[in-house]
Amino acid sequence: MSIFSVDDARCNRCGICVLECPARIIEMRGAEALPSWVETGEELCINCGHCVTVCPLRAVNLETMKAEDCAPIKKELLPTAEQVEHFLKSRRSIRAYKEKPVPREVLAKLIDIARYAPSGTNSQPVQWLVIEDQTEVNRLAGLVVDSMRSAIKAAPDIAAALHFDLMVSAWDLGIDVILREAPHVIVAHAHKDLPLADQNCYIALTYLELAAYSLGLGACWAGWLQMVMTSYPPMIEALQLPEGHVSMGAMMIGYPKYRYSSIPLREEPAIIWR
Length: 274
Ligand SMILES: Cc1cc2nc3c(=O)[nH]c(=O)nc-3n(C[C@H](O)[C@H](O)[C@H](O)COP(=O)(O)O)c2cc1C
Hints:
Blueprint: E1 4-6, H1 16-20, E2 26-27, E3 36-37, H2 41-44, H3 50-54, E4 60-62, H4 81-90, H5 104-114, E5 127-131, H6 134-154, H7 156-161, H8 164-172, E6 184-191, H9 197-214, E7 218-221, H10 223-229, H11 233-239, E8 245-254
Antiparallel strand pairs: 1-4, 2-3, 5-6, 6-8, 7-8
Helix pairs in contact: 5-9, 6-8
Residues 92-93, 95, 220-224 line the site of flavin mononucleotide (FMN).
């Protein structure tokens, strides 16, 4: 049974669903015919919902996605281009956090927004590990430092180039430059065999970082944690991800202690125009 259906009474045969389907599996056999799936429809559908949500008459349904369940886009809620530019340019990596924890429902809201990030063939492979407990965040930072201590002995040239000695010394003085005493860390992970899993995780984390800024939170990519998440056995053990899953990126999250008042300068873009 086809999971694609069109409401005959509503459909005006405009054909937009045919043209917008990324898999090209919708056809209209004649000007008066209702849109329908080609034979391979069920196999090739990526369940992106474009056919359902592009239809101005809400005539298209998938068994997995009913038109009535898809929230309407409210034009009045869309920011202007100027607002988007200002928002994107004014976002900063936040490394000083208030001691106040972020409520679970707010962290869940970030993840809820991040699941709307694009993913290859709409595979939505990104899963999340939320380290809510700051003691655990601190333990993970300590493990990163342990890995740096090992690297200083095992690979001194690389360790020197990356200034591991400075970070270890800071840690020994009680200063955490690894996870910045963030109250929370959110890790994106996915099954290791999924295509483009790492890119999908980076994009989802980027959405999460922007969502955090929009909600008055501060976020910062946890690059030092990321560097050892898949290679340092004590860290792999500490993360306890589901079988076959690999961490693909992490973000520190908390309430920012300070607010930025202006936008720093950035390099001019290097562009090749053809
Ligand atoms: C992949 C990646 C890893 C990063 N890792 C860290 C990190 O481990 N610690 C940190 O303090 N900042 C980290 N950052 C933040 C960058 O230093 C920051 O984006 C850059 O200095 C520009 O500042 P802005 O984000 O405020 O524009 C990372 C950023 C990216 C994109």
